[in-house]
Design a protein that fits this description.
It comes from Aminithiophilus ramosus. 37% of the residues lie in helices and 16% in strands. The chain contains 13 helices and 17 strands. The termini are far apart. It is of the alpha/beta class and 445 residues long. The chain has a seven-stranded mixed β-sheet with strand order 4-10-9-8-7-5-6, sandwiched between helices. The chain is globular, with a radius of gyration of 21 Å. Strand 15 and strand 16 form a beta hairpin. The structure holds pyridoxal-5'-phosphate. The site of pyridoxal-5'-phosphate has 16 residues, from helix 4.
């Protein structure tokens, strides 16, 4: 027998990574790379952080697992207190799972159960409205909400397809309008869709505050989230913010919705929550929702073996303590400004950079074949893959993506270093990025 890992791709063989330290990764040949995208916006505290390693190791020495149907653990109780301390006011309940997709499905199920408990078993409120050009996970349940077009096509016969509206994509507006004279047609589409379906059938609207992986950090106009909140309130629909990528300090705020002073009913989190030290995810729930269940049936009819896992709890509590003690969110904000300034210089000079966009330490770069017409590169040219390769050769890891709007595929990537990066490290990232993109544009244009 010759056991092998079924790889994500048989076409390329990824190097074996053996060590991490701060923003650096080291492979088995001793080559060092800057982790310019924190894995996939996970390793918010960088690699090898002693405080988190000690907290998880100490927890392993106490109790490694206790089944959530029978026990609570101190680690998970502490994690809930820490998470709620950085969440918007009035969201004090945290349901812990093992990753983002599980957390999204928990949010969707909770929204349905909330209305059943509140209005009775005959309620028809169940559908969740989502958005195109979004990503909420790769399970069958989450892919019905969103997903990369290529993956969706393959698996779509399996989905429970959610109704969808367009995402805010000002660079390629789906309504062919221009901000601000557009009056935010993209946000107003939510109300139209609710009215078409009938609010009595809709339980929730789900969206990423800044769209992450599909189209590269699509950042909404200032009015977008307040408008969405108002519509959800008016039609009695829960607002679920998928902060799997944007949460836990990534955008220079505790949670991304804080930028617009909007409080969702459920925040979905994962990735940065335990910063990659242990698989973790969770939903942070408005008190009124949790208390409707408490005063009704008395239980959330849902569960996984790893709910409230003590190792995840210990890592999460340690990550949030670390963020507060070391002013990580403030650093993300300050270094984010430095990164933004550097990216804007690259945008002004590199002929294939169409747009840079983002907040804090979450930035997307959209690549185009023609800046005047915004025409994307033909897909076979593999522009984002080439940019990624050129950066990797210069020891910088970026996160490539490809979006699709109205049948047109594009190229983009995310640049999102650990939130503990220093000014000197940001400058080094920008230097390598500029060189990598110069080399790629010379080959592509
Ligand atoms: N939601 C968003 C916004 C994500 O970016 C991701 C993962 O990239 C997920 C959900 C799914 O998380 P996971 O891969 O942990 O299942």
């Amino acid at each position: 027998m010759d056991g092998k890992v079924l790889p994500r791709s048989f076409k390329t063989q990824a190097p074996i990574i053996v060590k991490g330290e701060g923003i650096y990764l080291e492979d088995e040949s001793g080559r060092r790379y800057i982790d310019g995208c924190s894995g996939a916006l996970i390793s918010n505290l960088g690699h090898g952080c002693p405080e988190i390693i000690e907290a998880v190791t100490a927890q392993l020495g106490r109790i490694e697992f206790a089944h959530p149907s029978r026990w609570r653990t101190e680690a998970t109780e502490e994690a809930a207190r820490e998470v709620a301390s950085m969440a918007p006011e009035g969201l004090d309940y945290v349901w812990f799972v093992s990753g983002g997709s599980e957390a999204i499905e928990s949010a969707v199920k909770l929204a349905r159960q909330y209305y059943v408990e509140r209005d009775g078993a005959t309620t028809s409120k169940a559908q969740v409205i989502a958005r195109w050009n979004s990503y909420h996970g790769s399970t069958i349940g989450t892919m019905g909400l969103a997903g990369s077009m290529a993956r969706r096509r393959l698996f779509s016969p399996l989905f429970l397809e959610a109704p969808k509206i367009a995402a805010h994509y000002c660079y390629r507006c789906p309504f062919e309008a221009t901000y601000p004279s557009c009056g935010l047609l993209c946000a107003r589409e939510l109300e139209k869709t609710i009215r078409r379906i009938g609010p009595q059938y809709v339980s929730a609207f789900i969206a990423e505050p800044i769209v992450g992986s599909t189209v590269g950090a699509l950042t909404p106009p200032e009015e977008y989230w307040p408008m969405i909140r108002e519509v959800c309130d008016r039609y009695d629909i829960l607002l679920i913010a998928d902060e799997v990528m944007t949460g836990c300090g990534r955008t220079g705020a505790n949670f991304c919705v804080d930028h617009w002073k909007v409080t969702p009913d459920i925040i979905v989190t994962a990735k940065g929550m335990a910063a990659g030290y242990v698989p973790t995810g969770g939903i942070i729930v408005r008190n009124a929702i949790a208390e409707t269940l408490r005063d009704g049936s008395g239980a959330f009819l849902h569960g996984h073996t790893y709910n409230g896992n003590p190792l995840s709890g210990a890592a999460t509590a340690a990550v949030f303590r670390y963020m507060k003690k070391h002013h990580v969110v403030e650093n993300a904000r300050a270094q984010g400004e430095r990164l933004a300034t550097g990216l804007r210089k690259i945008e002004a000079t590199n002929p294939m950079v169409g747009e840079v966009r983002g907040k804090g330490l979450m930035w997307g770069v959209e690549l185009v074949a023609d800046r005047a017409t915004r025409a994307p590169f033909p897909k076979p040219r593999g522009a984002s893959a080439l940019a990624t390769k050129e950066c990797l050769e210069r020891g910088l890891v970026i996160y490539p993506g490809g979006g699709m709007i109205d049948g047109v595929e594009g190229d983009n990537f995310l640049i999102a270093p650990p939130l503990v990066a220093t000014a000197a490290e940001i400058d080094e990232i920008l230097k390598r990025l500029e060189e990598g993109l110069d080399a790629a544009s010379k080959k592509l244009l």
